[in-house]
Amino acid sequence: MDSPEWESVLQFVSEPLDMDIMSDKLVHETGSAAPSQVPTPPLNPVVSISTTFFSGANLNPLPPDLVFLSSDAVFFYVHSEQVLGASENGFCGLLPAKPANPPPALKSFPRVEELGPIIALPESAHVVNVVLHTIYGISCAHYAPSLDILLAATDALHEYGIPVKRYCTPSTPLFALILAQAPFNPIEVYALAAHHDLYDLAVPISSHLLGYQLASLSDALVQKMGPIYLKRLFFLHLGRIDALKRLLLPPPHPHAPTADCDFTEQKKLTRAWALASAYLAWDARPDLSMAAIEAALRSLEEHLSCGVCKKSLGERIKQLIVQWSVVKVLT
Ligand SMILES: [Zn+2]
Fold first, then answer.
1. pTM of the entire predicted model
2. Cα of 303 to ligand 1 centre, how many Å?
3. What are phi and psi for residue 21, nearest 5 degrees?
4. How confident is the model at residue 108 (pLDDT cuts 50, 70, 90)?
5. Which domain of life is it from (predicted)?
6. C-alpha 280 to ligand 1 mean position (Å)
7. How far is the centre of ligand 1, averaged over its atoms, from the C-alpha of 146 (Å)?
8. Ligand 1 mean position to 276 CA, how many Å?
9. How far are the Cα atoms of 70, 84, 161, 326 from residue 131, in angstroms, in the given order?
10. Which entry of 27, 94, 176, 300 is 20 to 30 Å from 120 by CA?
11. Is pLDDT larger for residue 45 or for residue 227?
């Protein structure tokens, strides 16, 4: 592994392993088979160690007593009490770990007994890294995890009985990381927020979903977000369009008749406004931009000769823009 996140040369494995360090056998087998005496080319002689969760990391006053091994051979030294304290299902039934029993193939290596219990996890090191940072309440922002990693880590947290709702609140590093990545794939993040009922996350994400084509929602996404958040997404779209139609309805205020512009003359503006707003509302989308609204209505000015009407139109447009900007995205 070339990742700077892990120390890629493990010091305690001082000679090549004659087996695949990743095989389940390594972790679970407790049989009597002795390591082969005939050296064979190692499949993976190097084990990496997390640069945050290493044996000497001072994450806790006590030394770590448990090792997680990711699917891509990275060791994470953790405290079983910290992990158990966060999990509501004994870390998916993996904890408490059985007493240390080094796999036969590792018995000949120095200091292996110091490792304590080793638990192999099916997740990659990137995902385990986010999961553990979350459990320890520390930020992993410096690792810049991708959105896919964050999504997988959030699902893994759930799997391991860590209440996502408690560990992904607006004040947590995980929340900030996911929110920062949300614009890249808002519907996936919305579905994630929905799945774990992370309402505080769903609200800011929904502003990125105004341009989303609801017709393109896949069954999998619908299933993941569930009925409540699906309804909220639909009403977000319908509600915005409704609100826009309501806001467009009142025409600019008429002014007192002048020599150049009586009430009949002013009706021209009222009619033009009605036409322009009908045009805007006809295919209004929830993400209709302020610029588009302003451009459509501002064009009416060209047909006005009365200065007072022009001013009234300008004020009405300004008011509309302000009103549209505060229409709530998701409530
Ligand atoms: Zn006028």
1. 0.70
2. 11
3. -65, -20
4. low
5. Eukaryota
6. 24
7. 57
8. 18
9. 12, 13, 11, 37
10. 176
11. 227
Amino acid at 198: L
Mean confidence (pLDDT) of the chain: 82
Nearest to 193 by CA among 158, 241, 244: 158
Ligand 1 centroid–CA 316 distance in Å is 14
Per DSSP, the three-state class of 274 is helix
Tokens 């695949």 map to which residue?
Answer: 20
Bridge partners, residue 7, by sequence: 49
Choices 2.30.30.40, 3.30.710.10, 3.40.50.620, 3.90.1150.10: CATH for 6-167: 3.30.710.10
Q: Provide mean pLDDT across the span 181-202.
A: 94
- CA 244 to ligand 1 centroid distance, Å: 26
Domain boundaries of the chain, sorted by first residue:
6-167, 244-325
C-alpha 278 – ligand 1 centre gap (Å): 22
204 alpha carbon to ligand 1 midpoint, in Å? 43
Please tell me the distance between residue 308's alpha carbon and the centre of ligand 1 in angstroms.
5
Q: Per-residue pLDDT tens for 233-269?
A: 998 888 888 888 899 999 999 999 999 999 999 998 9
Question: How far is residue 137's CA from residue 231's CA, in Å, rounded to a whole number?
Answer: 33
Q: Cα-atom radius of gyration of the chain, to the nearest Å?
A: 30
Name the residue among 83, 63, 67, 84 with its Cα closest to residue 75.
Answer: 67
d(CA 84, CA 67): 13
Distance 264 CA to ligand 1 centre (A): 10
